[in-house]
Structure formats: C-alpha cells, structure tokens
Amino acid sequence: MPNNLDNLIKRAAKALKRANYAIAFTGAGISVESGIPPFRGPTGLWSKYSPTILDLYHFRDFPEESWPTIKEIFYDYWETAKPNPAHYGLAELETNGIIKEIITQNIDNLHQKAGSKRVHEFHGTLKTLTCMDCYHNFKYDPILLKKLPASCPDCHGLLKPNFVFFSEAIPEQAKISSIEAIVKADLILVIGTLGEVMPACQLPYLAKKTNNATIIEINIEESNFTRKITDIFLKGKAGEILPEILHYF
Predict the structure, then answer these.
(1) Annotated binding site: which residue ranges?
(2) Is 45:38 a contact under the CB 8 Å cutoff?
(3) Which residues are annotated as a binding site for Zn(2+)?
(4) Catalytic residue positions?
(5) Are 46 and 18 found together in one domain?
(6) Residue range 46-68: mean pLDDT, rounded
(7) Whole-model pTM?
C-alpha cells in the first residue's frame, strides 16, 4: 500500500477515535466487491437493461413486462450475494462502538447480513413487498414470485418490491431516521457513492453544514464530494481499506 495512503488511513483512524458520533453513508460501490453491479457506468445495469422496468407508472401499467426482469436482477441473483470485507468492517466498527449508525442507498441487505444492526435503508429494501391495492406488506418468499406478475395473497392486487422506483418518494420513516442520524453526526464515512443520486447525495452536505462533520471518503475514484466537502480521501477499494483502518483499533 502506498505510503501516502497509509498515512491517510492513520489520519482516518485517528479521526474516528476522536469522533463523538460517527456514522457511515454507503452506496453501490461497497457492494460491487460482492459481485453486485452498479446501476450506472459502462458495466452498470442500465447498460444492459432499460431503466423503464423501474418506472413506477410503467410497472403499474405493464407489470408483465417489468416483473420478469426485476426477478432476474434483484431476486435470482442479488439474493445470493454475500457481504465482503467492507461490510464486515463496518459491522465490526459498530460492534466496537465507533460507528453508531449506517445510512445506505443500497437495497441488498448486505450490511445486515454482515451483522450491522442500526441500518437506515434510504431507498428501501428487497426483504419485503407491498400490495399496490390493499397496501399489505409481505416478507419476501420465493413462492410469491413463482407466478409473474406477482399478486397479493390477500386481494390478488399487484405486488411491488419495497424499494424506491423512479417517480416514487423516499420512504418517510427511512428519510426521517436518516436525517436524525445526519444531524447528530460529527464524522461520516462516505463509502462507494459518487454523490449523483438525489436526494440521497444531499445528506453528507447537510452533516457538513449542521455540525461541520469530518468527511472521510473511500472511493475508487473522485466523487462529487471529493473536492467540495471531503476532508480525507482514501482512494481504493473499501474491502481493502476498511480492514486497514481496523488495524488501528
């Protein structure tokens, strides 16, 4: 590991030790190392599939077009993904009382699988589905997706995955709990996000504005945060850098 990066990792660990209320803010990049592709970029999902499948109104009107692809991407494949060292590193930092909460833009449940307890899923979750007619929630079960479009066991209405589609609002409770965490934070670990998705990308700026929070960023490339609010930029894979940070605890 380059000496400069090692020095920055030491600085990051020292800042984490000093923090009163450190949280993590994660995006698609942390899960790429678990084999889950990002949505954007040359290897992203939208280079292979049409984003229309996740448009709320298209899904409602043409579920027979959207559901097979949604099942293929998010359930047949993502459900088998496993946490990587970055997820386990954050879980260990939480267990040790260093990280208090995690706000994630991801829907893959990998933070929870790694052992993290206080996770705010800003864009929803794969774990449950909601009926668009009677609004009952159902825990994900492969049986629900044996016949597509998936229908409600109670009223036979259309079932929708409980993550945010295009044209859909952020879940209210996730938004509230995330903002509550942000305004308490004096340090944020920003991991695997380029800061391009609204309104999630506003959260680190809110922490900087509210508490002048220290921003430690771990990304394989510079983001929209790097030259604006980031204090310590650790360039590289989170699965390699977080274990190095843990060596100082």
Answers:
(1) 131, 134, 152, 155
(2) yes
(3) 131, 134, 152, 155
(4) 123
(5) no
(6) 89
(7) 0.93
